[in-house]
Amino acid sequence: MGRTRNTRLEAVVQEWGLSQRQLAARFRAVAAENGATELLRYDHSRIARWIGGATPEGRAAHILAETLSRGLGRTITLTDIGLATDDAADPQTPTWSVDTLATLATLGSTDMDIARRQVLAQSAYSVAGLALPTEGWWQESAARARTRKPLSKHTVTAEDVTSVREMTAFLSRRDQQRGGRGVGRAALVAYLRTDVTELLGGRFSSDGLRRDMTSAAAELAYLAGWTSFDAGEHPIALRWLTLATQLAEEAGDAPLAGHVLRAMAHQAVDLHQPKEAVRLAEGSLSSRRYAEACWREKALLGVVHARGLAAAGYKKQAAEALNRAESDLSRAPQDGDEPARVWFFGEASLAHETAAALRDMGDLKGAEQQFKRSVRTRQTPFKRTHSVTLGYLGEVQVQQGQLEAACATWHQALDTMTGVQSGRARQTVVQMRRALSPVLRRGGGPAADLDVRARAVLADR
Q1: Which SUPFAM superfamilies match (predicted)?
Q2: Residue range 198-235, pLDDT digits in tens
């Protein structure tokens, strides 16, 4: 079967007005700037093959999109040049991008396309092949961002940065209250794909303003990843979190990069890849990421590290990490100057993560106490996390033979889930029914009534 001519790429090349030989020369120059030495031998015949329907390999597609973006003075995505589908064909192995702006636009387009999103969401999750770049690579990435040519005539202002941060704060609070699924997330991705992409491609009066905008974009990309994680769309989440880490490093915001790597570690723990979770958590604690973080964020990084260690079977190290996280949080000021992204992390969150670590270490009694502490101290707005905590509490209670207490706890969890749109909350209901299954086979009682409610909740999601 012959190839289908890539008419989208052909049209964009024709719009620029360069010959294929001239375009190949521009392509090699951009490849050299990005350190893509494997592409420096590409000549006009390669351009002709791509227009003819061949698929660029490795980083070539992103370099081509960046080359065309520079030449036309606007963002050209992989979708615009007919290459996005192939780019999304292997979503379980994301890579560190050579052009975060093009990646942002392409990933946003993929996420907003229902069919392509489903392909991503249904793929296998794996973080094993995603090695963290060296410090030198991060520095080169930041240098490329500093010298990136503007793709629009808009001059970015401090008010633009504030607008992005305000939108992030609003959507973050909605996520905490309702979960990562639903219309709120669609609005988040659309905003990233359009407004934020345009702002990152704008003109900056100072490097400080560029870093501020890049940091704001990184936080919003992180939120897109976190909401995907909460919705159970793990390959998509991994893509967003990878991009958010790189944007944070481009901004020189080491604590934010650590915050995102911590989320990737959390995801790996939940998906039963403990060794990868430890590797990512150690990355979140390395270099300036932990050293420059505020005390509240230090505690958050540390407790997720403890969870990875516990899941991997390193009980002693996990206990030490838990103690250090508790100590770090105790030093956090009540009304200090802290990043907005850590506003949610307090005693209840620390107790929840500590309980999960103790559970994985086999200390069910300790886990029960910490889950109860989390339930007791959590504030009202955190419905999603509260329902998950109650689900986990019921699970450790039933594992200790406390069936009546577990059923009461799970009824509370189902009450709390009203209005919550969360894949993680839904999974606790699945686990609930699984734990009840042996009891149901022996007869009805309170477990039967609970199972009826649980089935109704699952049918509604």
Answers
A1: TPR-like
A2: 999 999 999 999 999 999 999 999 999 999 999 888 98
